[in-house]
């Protein structure tokens, strides 16, 4: 089967299949957005209160109490601090490496499936444009059959072609917006975890 024949089959199929692909991508994107939103909301905590409690335990020389307090939280910040305090006896350098490792693993966990949103956001408009191109090419057939006169079939083909571009944009915009929103949340949490981790390192160095 030659390339010309394959292209003719794609054009003959029309832009309808492009619309269904975009609808499928939008459904998957919405599912990922909801899953990530629920996951990030479930793992948030009052970082200011956590910091006050942490400093209170450390100032009293009670790292075990600090760990018990942190274990009541499901936040990323708490997991990073627990990793550092858990190896306090090995020194500040070991604790710093352990917290850095935990922070990277937490970042990968929070970014789960976000690459799909980025891919949809960057490629959905081009997929919609492909549907528009196919629809316009198909529109030439009824235009030729009607000897250049506008017909209802021609308008239907053009309308479907333009709908593909619009749908591609509608799918891409929320995907990009939520991708950036989630990345901002993840970055903020990792930055807070790093700041609290430095409090732990300062305590360890002072104890040494």
UniProtKB/TrEMBL annotation:
Keyword Ligase applies: no
Protein's name in the database: MotA/TolQ/ExbB proton channel family protein
Domain MotA/TolQ/ExbB proton channel: 75-190
Cell compartments where the protein resides: Cell membrane; Membrane
Keywords for the protein's UniProt record, in alphabetical order: Cell membrane, Membrane, Protein transport, Transmembrane, Transmembrane helix, Transport
Top-level taxonomic group: Bacteria
Main subcellular location of this protein, as a coarse class: membrane
Organism whose genome encodes this protein: Pendulispora brunnea
Membrane topology field: Multi-pass membrane protein
Pfam families: MotA_ExbB
Transmembrane portions of the chain: 15-34, 114-141, 161-182
Entry similarity comment: Belongs to the exbB/tolQ family.
């Amino acid at each position: 089967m030659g390339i010309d024949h394959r292209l003719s089959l794609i054009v003959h199929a029309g832009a309808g299949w492009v619309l269904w692909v975009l609808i499928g991508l939008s459904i998957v994107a919405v599912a990922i957005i909801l899953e990530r939103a629920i996951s990030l909301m479930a793992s948030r905590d009052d970082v200011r209160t956590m910091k006050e409690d942490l400093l209170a335990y450390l100032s009293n020389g009670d790292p075990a109490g600090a760990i018990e307090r942190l274990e009541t939280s499901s936040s990323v910040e708490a997991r990073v601090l627990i990793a550092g305090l858990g190896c306090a006896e090995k020194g500040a350098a070991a604790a710093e490496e352990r917290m850095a490792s935990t922070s990277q693993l937490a970042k990968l966990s929070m970014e789960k499936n976000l690459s799909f949103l980025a891919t949809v956001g960057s490629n959905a408009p081009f997929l919609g444009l492909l549907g528009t191109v196919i629809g316009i090419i198909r529109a030439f057939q009824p235009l030729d059959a009607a000897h250049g006169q506008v017909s209802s079939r021609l308008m239907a083909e053009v309308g479907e072609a333009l709908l593909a571009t619009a749908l591609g944009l509608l799918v891409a915009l929320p995907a990009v917006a939520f991708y950036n929103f989630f990345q901002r949340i993840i970055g903020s949490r990792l930055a807070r975890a790093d700041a609290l981790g430095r409090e732990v390192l300062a305590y360890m160095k002072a104890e040494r």
